[in-house]
Design goal:
458 residues, 16 helices, 7 strands, 46% helix, globular
Length: 458
């Protein structure tokens, strides 16, 4: 028995060592990716002469970050933040990252909590931070770093907390699937505790039979507080007392409840009288006429959803589409098969019109047109950019000609779109090229000749 147990323990330790070895490999690969990204951006920044082309070194840096973001299906902010973190890492932390001792999450935690600390303070606590990182989870590690900073430099810590409370508050919205969004708010610890206390107070007033989960209750409590309302209980008793229709699957104080749906006008018979639930003595309504009877009675119209008698059967043939099934796949195949051809829907930027409509020859769009374009495109048109259109410039896809407005791209709905200031500048500097394809697909080409496509917003 002892031998079998020892053998099992040895195999278990070997398997655990394999897991930890794979983890170190992944950590080292993440550090290698950041190092290669840094080399790429450095090379791309030095590849052109800014004073000959009018393109500044900042433009080249921004373009290089956008090239990486587009190739990695990421965003400018995500790539830029990773690169800046890599460049600002202390030598000991970077070496631990490179050899796989630290993962990306812990490295980011160390970077964020030591950011803006005095260099001499960082040097004094760096060894202790690394020891803590080897044994503490990232969330707890952040609090431990804050404690070390407070002990090592209390004056700086007190001042930086005051400054952060004034300058680092923000709210970010992330659109998720199925019509949901994540609203993230950065606030002080005291403000967060206060809001959580309010949410807890709302949730505590609900009956135990409320069918929602704890997360759903807290989410609904936050929405109720935002609207200045009270969180309502959704147990069957409360729903009935408020006159709401209860969920058939909702339990009533621990017992399953079957609630029959209310009858609508569609349940009424031809005489206008509704049948009573559970009663079989109600007079049946007249039978619905058959299709043959309708065909023999030309004066009686067909139901609204019925096809005409002589209508051909629906076309169920599956048609092949070049380049694959998705919109972007099709246009990628078309463009890459003939990259020198003109694929734009309106190459002249005139929207297929011969006469400019009112306002088309004015550089700035009207307020009505701007609102229409922003509603149609909620975000920047650049691939992967999530800057809301309200914070974007309205850029001409085909450049507006200030000297001869009738010749250049017009200020019309099909030729303008939201573009954040960063990506607007890259297009203006001719580093990135843009054209609008049929079916509303936006085709963008980076300085290296790579093609990217943005599908139209549904």
């Amino acid at each position: 028995m002892g031998l079998r147990e020892s053998t099992w323990m040895a195999d278990d330790h070997c398997a655990l060592a394999d897991v930890l070895g794979a983890r170190r490999t992944i950590n080292a690969a993440a550090a290698s990716e950041l190092a290669l990204m840094d080399d790429y951006v450095h090379g791309r920044t030095l590849c052109a002469s800014p004073w000959d082309t009018g393109v500044t070194e900042k433009d080249l840096y921004s373009s290089a970050i956008c090239e990486l973001a587009a190739a990695m299906s990421s965003t400018f902010a995500a790539v830029h933040n990773k690169l800046q973190m890599w460049r600002q890492l202390r030598p000991l932390v970077r070496n631990s990252f490179i050899d796989g001792s630290l993962d990306m999450e812990r490295v980011k935690t160390i970077h964020d909590h030591l950011l803006h600390a005095r260099p001499e303070t960082v040097v004094a606590i760096e060894a202790e931070v690394l020891k803590a990182a080897a044994e503490i989870a990232p969330g707890t590690l952040g609090r431990e770093i804050d404690r070390l900073l407070t002990e090592a430099d209390p004056d700086w810590d007190r001042e930086v907390r005051k400054r952060a409370a004034r300058t680092e508050k923000r709210i970010r919205v992330r659109r998720r699937a199925r019509g949901l969004s994540s609203l993230t708010a950065v606030m002080t610890d005291g403000e967060a505790d206060e809001q959580l206390s309010r949410i807890g107070a709302e949730v505590s007033r609900l009956h135990p039979e409320d069918p929602r989960s704890d997360d759903q209750r807290r989410g609904d409590a936050q929405t109720a507080l935002m609207r200045g309302e009270a969180l309502l209980c959704e147990c069957s008793t409360c729903l009935t007392s408020r006159g709401d229709v209860a969920d058939p699957e909702a339990p009533e104080h621990g017992e399953p409840v079957a609630v029959k749906p209310e009858r609508t006008d569609a349940n009424a018979d031809a005489t206008g009288e509704t049948a009573t639930e559970g009663t079989s003595s109600a007079p049946p309504g007249p039978e619905r006429p058959t299709r043959e009877q309708l065909d023999k009675s030309p004066t009686d119209p067909l139901p609204p959803d019925a096809p005409p008698p002589d209508a051909p059967p629906p076309d169920t043939t599956t048609r092949s589409r070049p380049g694959g099934g998705t919109l972007i796949e099709r246009w990628r195949a078309i463009v890459e098969n003939n990259p020198r051809a003109v694929h734009a829907l309106h190459p002249d930027g005139h929207g297929g019109m011969t006469t400019p409509p009112p306002g088309a020859l004015t550089y700035a769009p009207s307020r009505a047109l701007a609102a229409q374009v922003r509603a149609e495109h909620p975000y920047c048109l650049h691939p992967g950019c999530n800057v809301p259109s309200e914070r974007c410039d309205l850029d001409h896809i085909v450049e507006f000609d200030r000297q001869n407005p009738e010749r250049g791209g017009w200020t019309i709905q099909t030729n303008i779109g939201p573009r954040c200031r960063l990506h607007h500048n890259l297009k203006t500097r001719k580093l990135w090229r843009t054209e609008l394809l049929p079916e509303g697909v936006l085709h963008i080409v980076d300085p290296l000749g790579n093609h990217y496509f943005t599908a139209p917003t549904l």
